[in-house]
Amino acid sequence: MESNFLRKVIIKMRNNHSGKVLVTGGAGFIGSHLTDTLIQNHYEVIVLDNFSTGRIENLAKSSGKIEIIRGNMGDREVVKQALQGVSVIHHLAAQPNVRLSVENPIFDLQNNVEEALVLLEEAIRQDVRKVIYASSGGAAYGEPSEIPVPEQHPTNPVSPYGISKLMVEKYLYYYQVNYGLTCLSLRYANVYGPRQDPLGEAGVISIFLGRILQNKPLQIFGDGTQTRDYIFVGDVVASHLAAMDYEGKNWIFNIGTGREVSVLDLVDVMRAVAGVDVQPEHVEPRKGEVYKIALDNHLAQHELNWKPQTDPKTGMQKVWEWMKASS
User: Smallest Cα–Cα separation from 3: which of 308, 315, 324?
Assistant: First the structure.
């Protein structure tokens, strides 16, 4: 059921927006949840996805109610087609793998920066009103000097993925200043929830719960004391809805809980959720990953009237139930 907060946001959106909504990466984990919510509230939605990681089954709830365009964002003709009549873009399509970005930074640049530029160039040609960008607070700041990390903290990413996310933000600013395109950047913490691939390279909660379901050992990179800020996908979707209605001057917002959770603490919660005693294996830490981080969300609370609603145990229980039902 929708929260009162979400209902109020939706009413404002209906009053303030016309035209279609484009969700790039709309068949992916986060994008499909956003697509479903927009469709449930009677928005005309176009999904642009190349289905390299997105799945058509993620859009089952919205089947027949959306226009799906299968293609690469680097293809200007595909993007031009996708933007016909669009007023607002939610840009979630990306290469999301930090480790892959370390192994192949050129591939990361092409997918996360060059394709975003094609989208932005075509957006100004077709008079798109607003772009809401899925950025990364977990990767853009680098090793923070204070936790929780505020938006004004220096950005010193330690991975090509973080660099590419930050580069797109710089281009967003360029298009705002020079072309009047309204842009908002939502710097996500570590997002988790149903539909996140348990066999993927990102998303430790889904990966670990998937391995528990298969009676496989959990593999922790490092000693497990490293921390992250874990935010449930439904809360991230709510931030996108709030951003659609926002008309203030700020344009970069942290979307996190503000709380650090270590990998070892995460495993303890998983033991309670799954009802099994799991013993993790420790291996060498990975390059390009921040050691400790959590995001200060006070600006989003104040300006977007948004705050996370889901605690880790409740969110993890939802992932666990989804996994069991899907297996």
Answer: 308
